[in-house]
Design goal:
The structure holds two protein chains of two kinds.
Chain A: H1 5-29, H2 33-58, H3 67-84, H4 88-110, H5 115-135, H6 137-140, E1 146-147, H7 164-186, H8 188-198, H9 200-205, H10 210-236, E2 238-239, H11 241-245, H12 247-260, H13 267-286, H14 292-308
Antiparallel strand pairs in A: 1-2
Chain B: H1 3-34, H2 41-59, H3 63-84, H4 94-116, E1 131-134, E2 137-140, H5 141-163, H6 165-175, H7 177-182, H8 187-209, H9 220-234, H10 239-259, H11 265-279
Antiparallel strand pairs in B: 1-2
Classes of the chains: A mainly alpha, B mainly alpha.
Chain lengths: 327, 291
Amino acid sequence: MSTSPQEHTRWTRYAPWILLALILIFPFIFPSRYLLRTMVNIFFFAALGCAWNIIGGYAGQLSLGHAAFMAMGAYPTALLLLGLNVPPWLGFIPGVFAAVIIAFLLGHMVFGLRGPYLALSTLAFGEIVRILLLHFRDQTGGSLGLTIPFKGTDAWKLQFASEQPYYFICLALLGLCLYVTYKVHGSRMGYYLQAIKENQDAAENLGIDLANNKVRALMISAALTAVLGGFYVAYFYYIDPDSVCGTDLSIKILLVAIIGGVGTVWGPIIGACILIPLTEISNYLFGSGRAGASLIIYAIILMIVVLFSPRGLIALLPGGERSYRHE
Amino acid sequence: MDVEIVLQAIVNGLMMGGVYALIAVGLTLIFGVMNVVNFAHGEFVMLGMVMTYLLHLFLGMDPGVSILLVIPVMLGVGALIQKGLISRVIGQPDEAQILLTLGLSVLLINIALLFLGPDYRSVKTSYKLSVWAVGPVLFSVPRLLAFIVAMAFSGILWLFLTRTDLGKGLRAVAEKPEVATLMGINPKKMHALAFGIGIALAAGAGSILTPFFYTFPSVGGMFVLIAFVVVVLGGMGNIPGAILGALAIGVTESLTSQFVALDLAMLGVFIIFVLVLVFKPSGILGKGKVY
């Protein structure tokens, strides 16, 4: 790299603050509904990618069923709102507890498995939750899903006619996910997870409790994912088993992290900044009815990243190497 | 409960299980020889279905004939995919091959979606609704034919692996790649052959499914999950294990949908899957590759 270390320091010191300021004033400069929705989508998927990254990236335990945790946050939020008029900002809490408990149980069951076996069991876990959501249609609405009626702006219920409030709520949630990731990144647990990712047997020989650390990482990841599930209900007003618990969603979540850069704080944001606008462009070019087009692009990018830059696109940025932990 | 209903459910399950077996032996062969878990396997079932559908639509070809075209074509396609893509991730961390084949799966589904649209399409054969009664038990003719063809191809694979030099070469690479190389076997060629055979069998299973199963772009998803369950149940890389596992899963699915709830059929399958993974990840027939 031609730039000197000092320049890196200057770049990394000021750039995030300038960027943050731009993001904060963005909704006031560009009040376009469409642009803001795209931005909310970017924040949302970046946050999901961050949450996934804690278990999938830092700990290297590939989860292909993460959408199930989102459903665990989304369904209680929607049911409490529809049945008991509990506002989403309170109603998401039981779902988060449910997700953490399920993550604890699931983790203890499957984390003895490695590689493809683990990936397959998490895939099956996601499908089990989706099948159950479809089956108990009296409670969940089955494949028809649950629709939240919009009854005019009501801040108590997080219902807003304008796009700006959602923009800031989602930005705050992204901030939360980044903060948690940052904490994990620099903690003792972060080092343990890194060691587990590099070589589980060696990590165990060094006295690291594999099961305990992996399960804790999954619980943190599941909790954040469930919180985002609650936001999904407030923002999209509609959930069904395919939209919040499908394998497609699980794959999209991990794509964001992997394309950006696994095991880095900022990787998922880069991933979301690439994937979401790509979806928009492809919907514009091919029509949103042909949803296939954007996924074709995702798939090709994923394959290129796996073959040529397995550590994600962040590794190609100036100074990107430093986003990783020590190696 | 009625004995006849149970018997009927078991027969239906076995016939579907035969098709699962053909899909799963391909998956387990690829795993056994190359140590690659092919997440795109279901999409090759879909490609086989689409090819058969198109051959029927434009040429009026019967699925029983098109399978003889689909299998050699997919054999070549598989060898090319192995050379161009999969060979690059062999020997790399598991994540690389999982993500690469996952990407291939998403790619194939969405290419099919782009060209065919999301509609459910069916192949109408003259025997589509024919039924053959043996006492109280009814055999649907297309399902029975599918079962027989699937078992025949699984048997041919078994003979190929145990009786021919090429088949023995494949097994040698599966067992000890270094020693096989010393014996003058080119592991790269064997990998291409294994991947080609694996996905050709999956596509062949797709062909024989078309008379009684709708063809649509994401149809592979359910078959790949079942094939994974079967392969884990039988022991990864174990071909007789895969055939037995497939029949067992077919029956489990059929009994669950008959006696528990129609939409929970897959739940029984997945619960068995997770239990086997957690308590006996080497499969019910013991461990290791068996041919």
